[in-house]
Specification:
By secondary structure, the chain is of the alpha+beta class. 36% of the residues lie in helices and 33% in strands. It has 2 domains: 58 residues, no CATH class; 85 residues, no CATH class. A 3-stranded antiparallel sheet has the order 1-2-3, with helices on one face. Strands 4-5-6 form a 3-stranded antiparallel sheet, covered by helices on one side. The longest helix is centred in the last third of the chain and has 27 residues. It starts with 11 loop residues before the first strand and ends with a helix.
Length: 175
Amino acid sequence: MSKRKTDNMQNISRIDQPSKNTFGWFVRIRRDGNKVSKFFSDGKHGGRDAALKEAQEFRDSNLDQWQKFAKNHDRAMHLGKESNIGYPGISYCVKSKSRNGEEYQEHVFQVSYSPEKGVHKNKSFYIPKANTKRDFKRNYSEKLEEAIKFRDQQMLKIYGARYVNFKKKAEDMEE
């Protein structure tokens, strides 16, 4: 088990309820949408101090497991707000432009992400012009797929397996 630089009581609280004859330590850990909790009774674990020690070991073991697969484990996973197309971090916009005195519109997917704390980046995916609605829908779908793939790659670089788990949960909820 690794030595951890945490508050000795982080994720642990004391529960004393004489009316229910309940005395012990309660461990609650929540990371990336996962919850782990367990109660360590003074009576079952050899007293108050022994129960606390077991609760701390349980907490540390769970946090160690999480840190092994989590990239940037000390950074909260921020996905961005759901946008106008229903996908966090990707928005659709129409920009009015002028070239040689001629007005035209550009249709763009704007992808945003934050590779490190305090740094924000954007990438644009321009949707090619089309002569028919059918062609525009095809171009729109292709560029949206590119934008989603790019954002997923960036998020995977930033958060590693944590993002994979998030995506899997999100997909499972849609089904």
